[in-house]
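Everyone, study these two lines:
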Amino acid sequence: MSELRHIAVTGNIGAGKTTLCEKLSKHYKWEVQYEETEGNPYLDDFYHDMKRWSFNLQIYFLNSRYNQILEIKQGDKVVIQDRTIYEDAYIFAPNLYEMGLMEQRDFNNYFSLFKSMLTQTGPPDLLIYLRASIPTLVSHIQSRGREYEGNMSLDYLRNLNDRYENWIKNFDEGKKLIIDIDKMDLKNNPEDFATVLEQIDAQIHGLF
């Protein structure tokens, strides 16, 4: 356990990443690094005009995640990260590009920068993927009532979910744990959370 440093939680918009990070942080006394949505200067503009602001938003997230990883590597605490740098490059950016919402030159520039960053970062010690169906995602998104997510289309969520499934299936850079949350209520059901803890404990003890 002394070598454990970086746990990352991944999953589509509305999968419950932040909720799980908060609960794991409290249980294990880990430090949380959240995705920067509050104070993000591009997020609201992006959801109102995706084509205009897609490149700006993705660069902002990429830079934020990169700096988070550097801080984790240089620190001496166990940190749980809300979303990963892989998702920026393998899911969100290419999805925007294929939807015609990011120019090819911008995408090429973005991905080249990502590959350069990757030479200075490594995979998390454990990657936790929250698998969720579209109805579950929509329910979670509606319940939190973020105004900037109100214009999000179902097709957008479906495209992201397909990309997540393809990415996690092929992810082999490090250890991963897949949790199906469609029949779970991690926020309100202690038994569901206990089940997840058992799976995480088994993974952690298998690492060191």
Remarks:
- The two ends are 6 Å apart (CA to CA).
- The chain has one domain: 6-205.
